[in-house]
Amino acid sequence: MIYSEFIIEVVLENKPAARDPVGETIRRDLLAKKGYDMVSNVRSGQYLRFYLSAENEKKAEEIIEELLNKLRIFNPVTQNFKILKLQKES
Amino acid sequence: MIYSEFIIEVVLENKPAARDPVGETIRRDLLAKKGYDMVSNVRSGQYLRFYLSAENEKKAEEIIEELLNKLRIFNPVTQNFKILKLQKES
Amino acid sequence: MTKVKVDENELNVDLTQSEVEWIQNTLERNPSITELGMFDVMWSEHCSYKSSRPKLSLFEDAEKNYDYVLAGPGQDAGVIDIGDGYALAFRIESHNHPSAIEPYHGAATGIGGIIRDILCMGVRPIALLDPLRFGPLKGNPHSQWLFKYVVKGIADYGNCTGIPTIGGEVEFDKCFESNCLVNVACIGLGTIEDFKHAPSRAYNPGDYVVLMGGSTGRDGIHGVTFASRTLTELSEADRPAVQIGDPFTKKMIIEATLEAIKTGYVRGLKDLGGGGLSCALSELTGDGGTGAKIDMGKIFTREPNMNSYEIMLSESQERMAFIVKPEGLEEVLNVFQKFEMAHAVLGRTDDSKILRVYDGDNLVVNLPAIALSESPTIPRTEKRPDYLDQLLTEITPEPSKKLDEIIYILIASENICSKEWVYRQYDHEVGVRSVVKCGDGDSGVLRIIGTDKFIAASVGTNSKHCYLEPYEGAKEGIVEACGNVIANGAKPKAMVNCCNFGNPEKPESFWYFAEAVRGMADCCKNLRIPVVGGNVSFYNEDEVSNTAIKATPEIMIVGIIEGEDNIITLPFKEFGDDILIIGETKAELGGSEYYSVIYDLEGGIPPKVDENQIKTRWNFIQELYKKKLIKANHDVNKGGFIITIGEMCFKNELGAKLDLKDYNNYGLRDDELLFSESVGRFIIETNPRNHNEIMKLAKKFKIYVKKIGVLSQNPTIEIKGLKSGKLEIDALKMKNLYQSTIPNLMEI
Amino acid sequence: MRVKIAVLDFPGSNCDLDTIHVLNNVINIKADLVWHNYFKESKYDGVILPGGFAFGDYLRAGIIAAHSPAIDEARVMLEDGRPVIGICNGFQILTEAQFLPGALLQNDTLTFICKWVMVKVENNETAFSNKMNIGDILNIPIAHAEGRYYIENLKELEQNNQIVFRYSNENGEYTKDSNPNGSLANIAGVCNLERNCIGFMPHPERASESILSPKGTSHGKNFFYSMVDFIQKRL
Lengths: 90, 90, 748, 235
Ligand SMILES: Nc1ncnc2c1ncn2[C@@H]1O[C@H](COP(=O)(O)OP(=O)(O)O)[C@@H](O)[C@H]1O
Ligand SMILES: [Mg+2]
Description:
The complex is a heterotetramer, with two copies of chain A, one copy of chain C and one copy of chain D.
Chain A: E1 4-14, H1 21-31, E2 39-54, H2 57-70, E3 79-83
Antiparallel strand pairs in A: 1-2, 1-3
Chain C: E1 2-6, E2 9-13, H1 17-27, H2 33-42, H3 45-48, H4 53-56, H5 62-65, E3 69-71, E4 78-81, E5 86-94, H6 96-101, H7 103-119, E6 124-134, H8 141-161, E7 165-172, E8 181-191, H9 192-196, E9 208-213, H10 223-227, H11 231-234, H12 247-262, E10 266-271, H13 276-288, E11 291-295, H14 308-313, E12 319-324, H15 329-338, E13 343-350, E14 354-359, E15 362-368, H16 387-392, H17 403-411, H18 420-423, E16 434-436, E17 444-447, E18 453-460, H19 463-468, H20 470-487, E19 491-500, H21 507-527, E20 531-537, E21 552-562, E22 578-582, H22 593-599, H23 611-626, E23 632-635, H24 641-650, E24 655-659, H25 670-675, E25 682-686, H26 691-701, E26 705-712, E27 716-722, E28 725-730, H27 731-746
Parallel strand pairs in C: 6-7, 11-14, 19-20, 24-27
Antiparallel strand pairs in C: 1-2, 3-4, 4-5, 5-8, 6-8, 9-12, 9-13, 10-12, 11-13, 14-15, 16-17, 17-18, 18-21, 19-21, 22-25, 22-26, 23-25, 24-26, 27-28
Chain D: E1 4-9, H1 16-26, E2 30-35, E3 46-49, H2 63-66, H3 69-79, E4 84-87, H4 89-96, E5 103-105, E6 113-121, E7 137-144, E8 148-150, H5 154-159, E9 163-167, E10 187-191, E11 197-200, H6 221-234
Parallel strand pairs in D: 1-2, 1-3, 3-4, 4-11
Antiparallel strand pairs in D: 5-8, 6-7, 6-9, 9-10, 10-11
The structure holds adenosine-5'-diphosphate and magnesium ion (MG).
Magnesium ion binds at residues 76, 117, 271, 273 of chain C.
């Protein structure tokens, strides 16, 4: 089997009910007070980038999804996660 | 002028030459110990999503870049930021 | 900058031409690029004290002149014997330059560094303190940003390592706007045996040299040369020199190191700070009279293809070097394994007196171990700035505001108001030692579990006074810091200082430094306080105006309280009690907060220090303590005694009825009387029953003490006996202003 | 009867020695500090996960420690009814390990907070509160950055009487001002259904000696006495 290197990027963020004080504070204390009122909302989250070897990209994503769930890298009580689908560089 | 709503997603992370103790610890003390040794490296960062109105996407990105710099939401001495270019949902 | 040709390369070094020649002559060859880099770093101002050493020799020899001083200047930290078999280590250091460009990581790694210094003495770090300086917060987002992230950096690092931050100091002044000051101090406690087990020297040939902790990366190469220049010159290009702190690894290093020392097989210990491995190895062997043979290939690096220059000079955080007895190597390595700390046996010491570093078969460093620490000194010229004559002649303007208005403005001013916003973010209680907590006393008081002894520590100085008269200002810093620990019931035991000054190549800046050191040396001799360590930070200058910061010799004092019932706190306790002032008030408003806040005036003649007077006052207070005659004590500081009295009222929401008619021996104006910053005064609370006894003792000690009022239940401060009649201050309003200033300003 | 308690020492625990000090010298019972990798449940009648920053609290407070083998050992104790107590960081670990419901999120101030607060006892039938009375108001310090308790189903928690302590003012009222970190319903401590596992955000070990308390109290002792009493009743 030939393995290649993949990079998988993930974002974890709080569910709305768990609130997001970081986003709230940036909007309220920084943006609104400094005249950036075109910004109506800010959400914050945690970003993780995994470097791993796998047979193919799909497998790589599966591994990451599995470890996110199994190791509770995201806390299902309070968080959601998404794997980023980035545009390929042209 | 017609304004539309845009969502700009940003990731802030430590510069590549700088250490990332969070990522290192996740890899060493969690993934490696739980058998995920195909993961060779983890880097962590902060994710921010801005909802704003602007004339067009380019303008929206400019506003975000400006406020990240001006309001010191990230420090260029130790951090990089990138605006995420996501694949359009099909 | 000097260009030196090495092999095919040309290297820019900070060494002077004559220093390079000295190196060539001593080695009788051209140094290798790595060797040259090592000299460059080790002989930088930051490591070698080139400019400052001649002045620092004014301090009396603490180890020789004080029997309880176990380690004085020259070691990683000062150490004193505090009785009952315990040793106390402490040290202060600056992290100004990195913090000015990266406040969070700059401050965090500052804490990291000072913890390592204490750990090197073989004792457990038990407390941190943090004297800070920023530009004014009001209307200044840059200062707010620096302040917010410096505090957060200290909090995140200190809290995570489990070392309480028990005190500190903050001043705001325009001169610190672009060059903030971040000084950090650490106290360590252990037994005298612990301390003896871990010298920062390698005395014995044949011992193993072991590196433990984080990996070695390219980060922070030449951090010390960065700290040895002004921000203007270098900051942009040198920005990668700022390090990322890792408090979790540091916590593991602390535990692994202390446990390794307990094995009894550690014979020497050195942290890797400025100058990295080159600095640590040359100090260990050079000062220990040995040499060593090191295999660089054993060093665990973070990045591939690092060359010997990078590896030897990397200042990657969180690393320690151990000198280990051969028979105990395994046991020590087992300890590191338990904590899962990376480690490598780099080589062994020998009796060659030469430090040899091999990269494979290549001998990349081959230097007499002592050579690196034999840095030359540079004579600097001193010149008193011309502008001082003008400044010192400033006189007190006619009051432009009513006295009560002024009191409210002063209590709300940034330099006087409560710093609770800062210490709430610090875990100041971890360790279950903190007896007098932030805000409840002039100093932080820690118990020593298992004894009836307590440590009191305080740090501070008055930059405005030092700007006008550095000699007197530096003395005042000592009297002030001692006054703080005395106010809590302690006897001052020893001092360390952190000298923050401008560019020593400028005669005016160097004059400030020289005067401040002279002041500290004289004052410490007169008051019998040993100077057991310190640190010098030069090149603190404003980027734009190219002017130096106000001279800031930070003073840290540790004292000991014998017995729990001798601990005194600041708040007034009971209405009906007397309020007494110790010491006279003179017209000493030069450099005061009153001048600066009300008139935006920097000038006038600042307070003078009379050590003889001060010493008898201290003895008198100790006598009152012995007789249990003092219920609350607070030394008078910025803003004058009226501010002091206000602060003492807040906690229990009491008030005071003051009569100052007979407390004005010099016929002062009302504002002079109320706001003067004469040094060494105390406000105490006493039981009226004891008045005669106290006055009798005062007479015996020839001390000026005066009852100036009584405590009232109603939270109002009434002042009678002023020239302008009567004054009424709402103590609750005052309290509210005191508490809300910084939170309001920091809601960015 | 000899009661033997383990205080778990994770990499980054920093209230470990403080807790040991109080157990050994104030409560006067036998307690061992046990390095997480060496922990064997069979030797102990109860376990305390102390405060601190296990694994630096990197990623999320408590998450990495929650995956350690020591937690598997503690699970055995949890299941056979021995007390498993989490203080501060220990509470975070216990929620991440799913011994306890809910989660602890970043304080709504976004800062670390170190200060003395008051908590009121809501349930005195647990292994960490049985020597108290319902309605007691206790003086105790907090020191944390991630102590904002959150749970999706608060009703269920209330119905099951799993809320053990709440932040209150001195009159016992659950006001916004008395809630230091934005916790849902002022929650400061919760228990499992069996009442042998309790997580508590404030630090009883810092409140067990009057010399350390601004008001001269020593309410923290009752937590540890409760634990000892709970063990003695089981034995
Ligand atoms: N202002 C000072 N007063 C007294 N001693 C000082 C002063 N500055 C430096 N020293 C002493 O010089 C020695 C070297 O200091 P430094 O180079 O900062 O230590 P390190 O080797 O840990 O980097 C220290 O032991 C310190 O106590
Ligand atoms: Mg050092």
